[in-house]
From TrEMBL:
Protein name as annotated: Uncharacterized protein
An individual GO BP term: positive regulation of fat cell differentiation
PANTHER family per UniProt: ADIPOGENESIS REGULATORY FACTOR
Organism for this UniProt entry: Pleurodeles waltl (Iberian ribbed newt)
GO cellular component, one term: nucleus
Length: 147
């Protein structure tokens, strides 16, 4: 009887241990699959977030690059415009200076020509006066000699 009881207790305990062991093993499998699923879920979320951030950064880089290129083009056009403006101002100044010099040269040339004409007329007049004086003197001397 004791032996039979021991056998029954032993089989109950073994059955209970097997039952608990299978429950624990099933629980471990469930927890493990839940953890694996959670890890996969988190990993896919992190990968998606990384992709999202990467695409945002690429878009931002492209946006900044286009802004910088646009700013460079704007500054370059301003500099080119300023250079053209400055060059046209210098050319205009040079043309005005050249026309002033040409005008001054013409003025000086006409003054010199006028002065030359004036002196030439004076010299011719002086020569004529001297010649008439000499002729008159010659005539007086000749009349005195004849006379």
């Amino acid at each position: 009887m004791v032996r039979g009881w021991d056998q029954r207790c032993l089989s109950l305990v073994k059955g209970w241990d097997q039952h608990c062991l299978s429950m624990v093993e099933g629980w471990d499998q469930q927890c493990l699959s839940l953890l694996k699923g959670w890890d996969q879920h988190c990993l896919s979320m992190v990968k998606g977030w990384d992709q999202h951030c990467l695409s945002m950064l690429k878009g931002w880089d492209h946006h900044c690059l286009s802004m910088v290129k646009g700013l460079d083009q704007h500054l370059l056009s301003l500099v080119k415009g300023w250079d053209q403006h400055y060059l046209s101002m210098v050319k205009g100044w040079y043309q005005r200076l050249l026309s002033l010099l040409k005008g001054w040269n013409q003025c000086c040339l006409s003054l010199v020509k006028g002065w030359d004409q004036h002196w030439l007329a004076l010299v011719k007049g002086w020569d004529q006066r001297c010649l008439s004086l000499v002729k008159g003197y010659d005539q007086r001397c000749l009349s005195l000699v004849k006379g």
